[in-house]
From TrEMBL:
<feature type="transmembrane region" description="Helical">
    <location>
        <begin position="305"/>
        <end position="336"/>
    </location>
</feature>
<feature type="transmembrane region" description="Helical">
    <location>
        <begin position="30"/>
        <end position="48"/>
    </location>
</feature>
<protein>
    <recommendedName>
        <fullName>Permease</fullName>
    </recommendedName>
</protein>
<feature type="transmembrane region" description="Helical">
    <location>
        <begin position="60"/>
        <end position="81"/>
    </location>
</feature>
<keyword id="KW-1003">Cell membrane</keyword>
<keyword id="KW-0472">Membrane</keyword>
<comment type="similarity">
    <text>Belongs to the autoinducer-2 exporter (AI-2E) (TC 2.A.86) family.</text>
</comment>
<keyword id="KW-1133">Transmembrane helix</keyword>
<dbReference type="GO" id="GO:0055085">
    <property type="term" value="P:transmembrane transport"/>
</dbReference>
<feature type="transmembrane region" description="Helical">
    <location>
        <begin position="210"/>
        <end position="231"/>
    </location>
</feature>
<feature type="transmembrane region" description="Helical">
    <location>
        <begin position="269"/>
        <end position="285"/>
    </location>
</feature>
<dbReference type="GO" id="GO:0005886">
    <property type="term" value="C:plasma membrane"/>
</dbReference>
<keyword id="KW-0813">Transport</keyword>
<dbReference type="Pfam" id="PF01594">
    <property type="entry name" value="AI-2E_transport"/>
</dbReference>
<keyword id="KW-0812">Transmembrane</keyword>
<feature type="transmembrane region" description="Helical">
    <location>
        <begin position="7"/>
        <end position="24"/>
    </location>
</feature>
<feature type="transmembrane region" description="Helical">
    <location>
        <begin position="237"/>
        <end position="262"/>
    </location>
</feature>
C-alpha cells in the first residue's frame, strides 16, 4: 500500500469518527465521562491486582470507594453550594446597581485625575465588565436547560456513568490487547510509539490538568470564604472549575470577587487588596509550581489552539464537545508533531541530495 493510500485511509477514518460523534452527540455524555473515569482509575485497579485481588473485585472496590466519596461530598457540599449560587443569582442585579452607584460617588475624584472624557470611558467599561461577569452567573440555569441537562437528564447520566466505567474497567486490558492485535505488523512499533505519546498527553489532560482544576476550585473557595467575601464558596468554585479554559477561570473569578468586594467592603481598601492578592498569588503558584509538577510539558498545546478547540468542539457538539475538546486537541498535537518530524526526515524537506543546509554551508 502506498503512502498516499495510507494517508487517505487515515483521513477517511477521522472524518467518519467526527461524523459519528456529531450524529450521537446527544447521548455521548455518560460514555465520555465513564471512559474518562475508567482511564483515570485503571492504574489504581492494576495496583490492587498486584495485591492478588482479581479484576472484578479490584474494579468493584475502586468504584465503590469513588462513589462513596462523591456521594459524601455531594450531600455535604451541594446544599451549601446551591444556597450560595441561588443567592448570588438573586443578588447579581443588586451588585451591578451598587457598583454603578459606587462609581458615581467616585466621579469627582476620577474626573479630576483622568479628565471627564477618559473617566466616563473607564466608568462605562468597568460597569459593563461587572454586569457581564455577574450576568454570567444569572444565565447559568437557563443555559443548562438550553443544552438539555435538566434534573431528570442529570440523574440518568449519574446512574449510567458508573455502569459504563465499571464495564470499561473490567475489560480494559482485553480492549488494549484487542487494539494491539489490529495494528499492522510492519508499523506496529512506530504506532505504539505514537500511542505512548498520546497516552502521556492524555494523562496530562485527565490526571494532571484535572488535578490542577480541583486544587484551584478548593483553594479559591476556601480562601475567599475565610476572607469573609459574600458568596465566596460559589465564586471560588466557579473560578476553579472554569480554569480548564485558559485565563477564563481567573478572569471570571477575579471580576466577580473584585465587584463583590468593592460593594461589600468599601471603603476598606485592604480587603479589596486581599482579594486581589489571593488571585494574583495563586496564579503565580499555579503557573510556576502546580502546572509544571502535575501537567508538565505532556500536553504541549498553545493556549490559542486550545481556545479554538474549545470553541469549535463546543459549537459542533455542545457540552460533550467541551469535554472532548482538550483531549482531542492533545491527540491532534501529538499527531501534528509526529507528522512534522516525519516531514523533516523526508526527501521532500531535505531535498534529493540530503541535507541542503549542509550543502549550502559547504559551498
Amino acid at each position: 500500500m502506498t503512502l498516499r493510500n495510507q494517508v487517505l485511509i487515515w483521513i477517511a477514518f477521522f472524518v467518519v469518527l467526527i461524523g459519528l460523534l456529531y450524529l450521537f452527540r446527544g447521548i455521548l455524555l455518560p460514555f465520555v465521562v465513564g471512559a474518562a473515569l475508567a482511564y483515570l482509575l485503571n492504574p489504581v485497579v492494576n495496583q490492587l491486582q498486584r495485591l492478588k485481588i482479581n479484576r472484578v473485585g479490584a474494579t468493584s472496590i475502586v468504584l465503590l470507594f469513588v462513589l462513596a466519596l462523591v456521594l459524601g461530598l455531594f450531600f455535604m457540599l451541594v446544599p451549601l453550594i446551591g444556597q450560595q449560587v441561588v443567592g448570588l443569582i438573586q443578588r447579581a442585579p443588586g451588585y451591578v446597581t451598587d457598583l454603578q452607584a459606587l462609581f458615581a460617588r467616585w466621579s469627582p475624584e476620577v474626573n479630576e485625575w483622568l479628565g471627564p472624557e477618559r473617566a466616563a470611558q473607564v466608568q462605562t467599561s468597568i460597569s459593563d465588565l461587572a454586569r457581564q461577569a455577574l450576568g454570567f452567573i444569572a444565565t447559568l440555569p437557563a443555559e443548562l436547560v438550553n443544552i438539555g441537562y435538566t434534573g431528570a437528564t442529570v440523574i440518568g447520566i449519574s446512574l449510567l456513568t458508573p455502569v459504563v466505567a465499571f464495564y470499561l474497567l473490567l475489560d480494559w486490558e482485553g480492549m488494549i490487547r484487542g487494539l494491539q492485535g489490529l495494528l499492522p505488523k510492519e508499523h506496529k512499533a512506530e504506532i505504539n510509539g505514537i500511542l505512548g505519546d498520546i497516552d502521556k498527553s492524555m494523562a496530562g489532560v485527565i490526571r494532571g490538568q484535572g488535578g490542577v482544576l480541583l486544587i484551584d476550585a478548593a483553594f479559591y473557595a476556601t480562601a475567599l470564604s475565610l476572607l469573609g467575601l459574600n458568596f465566596g464558596l460559589a465564586v471560588g468554585l466557579i473560578a476553579g472549575l472554569l480554569s480548564f479554559v485558559p485565563f477564563m477561570g481567573f478572569a471570571v473569578g477575579f471580576s466577580l470577587s473584585i465587584g463583590i468586594a468593592l460593594v461589600q467592603f468599601w471603603p476598606n481598601w485592604w480587603m479589596v487588596v486581599a482579594v486581589c492578592a489571593i488571585f494574583m498569588g495563586w496564579q503565580f503558584i499555579e503557573g510556576n509550581i502546580l502546572y509544571p509538577k502535575l501537567v508538565g510539558s505532556s500536553i504541549n498545546i498553545n493556549p490559542v489552539g486550545l481556545m479554538f478547540a474549545l470553541l469549535a468542539f463546543g459549537a459542533l457538539f455542545g457540552f460533550v464537545g467541551l469535554l472532548l475538546a482538550v483531549p482531542l486537541a492533545a491527540i491532534v498535537g501529538v499527531l501534528v508533531r509526529y507528522g512534522v518530524a516525519k516531514y523533516k526526515a523526508s526527501a521532500l524537506y531535505k531535498g534529493p541530495n540530503g541535507d541542503l543546509d549542509g550543502d549550502v554551508s559547504a559551498a
